[in-house]
Amino acid sequence: MKKIRFGIIGGGLMGREFASAAARWSHLLDLDIQPEIIAVCSRSPQSFSWFTTHFPAIRQTTLNYHELLANPQVEAVYVAVPHHLHQEIYTAAIAVGKHLVGEKPFGIDLPACQAILSCMRAHPGVFVRCSSHWAFYPGAQRIANLLEKGAFGRIIEANCGFLHSSDLDPERPINWKRMVEFNGVYGCLGDLGMHVLHLPLRAGWRLKNVRAILMDIVKERPDGHGGRVPCKTWDNATLFCETTEPASGEPFPLTLKTSRIAPGQKNTWYVEIYGTRASARYSTAEPKGLDFLNYTGGEQVWGRLQTGYETPFKTITGANFEFGFTDGFLQMWAACLYEFGHGQPLRQFAGCVTAEEAAFSHRLFTAALESHRDSRVVDIPG
Ligand SMILES: NC(=O)c1ccc[n+]([C@@H]2O[C@H](COP(=O)([O-])OP(=O)(O)OC[C@H]3O[C@@H](n4cnc5c(N)ncnc54)[C@H](O)[C@@H]3O)[C@@H](O)[C@H]2O)c1
Q1: Does pTM surpass 0.85?
Q2: pLDDT at position 306, please?
Q3: Which of 2, 10, 14, 299 makes a 20 to 30 Å CA pair with 249?
Q4: Using N-to-C axis directions, what is the helix angle for 188-202 and 355-374, rounded to 10°?
Q5: Which pairs from 53-56 meet CB under 8 Å and 24+ separation?
Q6: Does 191 sit in the ligand 1 pocket, CB within 6 Å?
Q7: 167 CB less than 6 Å from ligand 1?
Q8: Which of 121, 77, 70, 67 is nearest to 98 (CA)?
Q9: In ligand 1, which atom is closest to the CA atom of 176?
Q10: Is residue 307 a part of any domain in this protein?
Q11: Is 258 near ligand 1, meaning CB less than 6 Å away?
Q12: Ligand 1 mean position to 274 CA, how many Å?
């Protein structure tokens, strides 16, 4: 088993999710490559003890990411920090030759993302991917298989979204994810948009233009110190995109939704595709159920099948069992390391988001901001 020695920069929610996935690597079968976490960098020293308690291979903890990047033992880094730091830390990592998995949105805005891509092009030997894992859910993978086979016929309409509701509570204190200076002007689009675009971009769909409606619903929040501060990030975004599919070149409407305030929803990712020959709907709100309609003439009947633990990368879990968030994250990491080790993804839809796909998301989000501001349709640069 080949080991890739990783450093983690950002020891918060996602830094620990990656460490936990690495600790569960034995869950995966048939992989010839494995991450080993040997260094952690965070801004708060309190976060180190969880890592050092559970990961005996960690030999470096530091508050300064430059020190971690200077560690010659570290071959690759996972960087999960607030968005305003993406450009600075991602480019620093690439420039010293560390392979990088960076969290979305992959730069706080379009210029930041473009700077990361320029740095990447100047260092072509460095492997770079963007984290996004919802497309690894078995229901999403079933839809991906149908797309690969061209089973939908001509696509009539598609909808993808990611819905939260925790921000419905106006008393929820503000944090960096609700502050423009740390999260960015995209607001909910930067936080949730890459996840929503993952499948459409992998399918090769071409998004030509966008009409966006953005909403700032909760305009101020508690500051956590007894006062209130303005909350200027976009809470919800609906993007209506004229899209073409590669096979036919025919246009269809693609609606993308990213909501932090979708009453009743809790981290719900969904995809719906309606076609002339088949249609399918999948939502993580009911993670096993896949709705499917196969049209061969006559009556049109929706059926529901239960997906199991059917994953691109085999695991010890039997196909009959249930799948969840941490399983998707583990599959994404398996895909990432597989692609690193083999030079190509296992399958079209079993690959990690590329930097170019992340860059497209920035062009779309930037066009969406313009569209909302001017109340008009805006072309998305290709
Ligand atoms: N893939 C997903 O499902 C998912 C979910 C949540 C967040 N994210 C993304 O992950 C990234 C991090 O989000 P999070 O929820 O883990 O945030 P978090 O606030 O939980 O953690 C951020 C960490 O970054 C550290 N940090 C801040 N400045 C630093 C610096 N200069 N050097 C080193 N460390 C520093 C903080 O100490 C903290 O530990 C963001 O890009 C976010 O969009 C992805």
Answers
A1: yes
A2: 96
A3: 299
A4: 120
A5: 54/19, 54/23, 55/19, 55/22, 55/23
A6: yes
A7: no
A8: 77
A9: 19
A10: yes
A11: no
A12: 36
Cα 334 to middle of ligand 1, angstroms: 21
Six token digits for residue 148? 């690969």
Residue type at position 362: H
Quick one: 176 and 118 in the same domain?
A: no
**How many A from CA of 82 to the centre of ligand 1?**
5
Q: Check pocket membership of 108 for ligand 1, CB cut-off 6 A.
A: no
The pLDDT assigned to 79 comes to 98
Give the 3-state DSSP-derived string for 210-239, with helices as H, strands as E and coil as C: EEEEEECCCCEEECCCCCEEECCCCCEEEE
* Locus of tokens 């034995």: 26
Question: Which domain range does residue 193 map to?
Answer: 135-313+356-379
The amino acid at residue 382 is G
Please, what are the averages of pLDDT over each run of 10 residues along the chain (382 residues)? 97 98 97 97 96 97 98 98 98 98 98 98 98 97 96 97 95 96 98 97 97 97 96 97 92 98 97 98 97 97 97 96 97 98 96 98 98 98 89
How many A from CA of 143 to the centre of ligand 1? Answer: 30
Ligand 1 contact via 162 beta carbon (within 6 Å): no
| Cis peptide leading into residue 105 (ω within 30°) | yes
Task: Ligand 1, residue 15: give the atom nearest the CA.
Answer: 16
Using most ligand atoms within 8 A of CB, pick from 8, 9, 13 the residue to mutate for ligand 1.
13
Residues 166 and 18 occupy one common structural domain: no
Residues 205 and 232 in one domain: yes
For residue 291, the CA-to-ligand 1 centroid distance in Å is: 35
Q: Whose CA is nearest to atom 9 of ligand 1?
A: 103
Q: Note the pLDDT of residue 248.
A: 84
Number of domains in the chain: 2
Q: Which of 92, 109, 130 is the last residue of a domain?
A: 130
Tokens of 232: 């200027």
325 lies in some domain: no
